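Subject: for your reference before the review

Hello V.,

The reviewers asked for a structural picture of the protein, and I figured it would be easier to keep everything in one thread rather than splitting it across files. Below is the amino acid sequence we used in the manuscript, unchanged from the supplementary table.
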Amino acid sequence: MDIYNLISFGGIFVLVGIAWVLSAEKRNMNWRVIGWGIGLQILIAVFIFVVPAGAKVFLVVNDVVVEVLDSASAGAKFVFGRLALGPGQSNESGEESLGFILAFQAFPTIIFFSALIAVLYFFKIMPLVIRGFAYVFTKLMRISGAESLVAASNIFVGIESAITVKPYLGKMTRSEMCTILTAGMATVASNVLALYVFSLQEQFPTIAGHLVSASLLSAPAALVMSKIILPESEQPITLGVHVQPFYEKDNSLFEAIVNGANAGVKMIAGIVALLIAVLGLVALVDLLLSVFGSGIGYVFGVELQLSLKEIFGYIFYPVTLILGVPPSDAGEISKIIGERLIVTEVVSYKDLASALEQDVLQHPRSAVVATYALCGFAHVASMAIFVGGVCALAPERMRNITSVAFRALVAATLACLLTACVAGTFFTEGSILFGQGR
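And here is what came back from the structure prediction:
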């Protein structure tokens, strides 16, 4: 371990302190949630990064995800042919890849993984795993069974996790509502996780394992930050109660596959629409900022280039140092982490891949810390999606849901950063996980 590991460890307490400063009720802290939440994160990180058996499990998980991704690409290659070939690949006819194309190589994996999750639900494997995580959260942290179930569900799925507690949404407290939104934005769905793996696999071979571990770490982090930002001041009806997940079971395996695949298509449509709209608006804002910056620069005789990425890079620079990123890489990483708040994590992971490809980063730990910090839907567009989704399930609670939305976004952002600090605390260049990396 070196100085940067210690900085990451100290960053855990700094982030908790920032959350406390922003808390709605500073005198009403649930220290059991905070203690056990951080404790679970540390236990998981020690198993993954320190224990040799855990590191081997990590690598096995990484290899399994990569193999599954290869299987997922079979259908895309049949439908799209050469366009679906990843960088460096060639088909049986000898045709080589045209390079990385997001629409034809990465997006089809979302359809496959959506169908796979639907199959696991049909065979009752996924509900069993989710119930196991929810049971641990409920018993150790003494929170409501409903919010434990949502947090556990979000390790594997996205906005649809709120459906698992649909019967309880109408009677949830404001703190529980905040937790539901925070858990959704602080984690990523497994089908979208495949998209990030596809984007970074060539530059970062162990990315799949790191993203899976980030998903595990982010669930307790979301509970910690949510309960600090908006502590519980009421009595949840499912407090300490183990709740069974609610879901609509398909009538047959084939129906589950069809519904899962269709859900994946809808998600792709949403992502595409989001990227086109958000990136277009960001480009417009950057154009206006560049004109404004040029005007100021002309007056003072200096060259001033302004953009949203540059601005958020400055804002997140101190935070990036707190995460344990070396100063030589902090400028680049802060821009990547900061832009996620506006342009989504999809673009940020692409920019991280570009930074690795161009050897912009001098320290391997910078890419690892950034990977964990970006692993979540903590951005403005996602906040709108989750608020809309939960309001659709419980329209009578719209006022309560919208009133905690921004707090949930702040909590989710801090949760992602907390996960990065925990990972940065235990990651070393001598680790077996680094030996299989870049």
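For the response letter, the relevant points are probably these. The chain has one domain: 3-88+101-435. Residues 3-88+101-435 form one domain.

Happy to draft the paragraph if you're swamped.

O.
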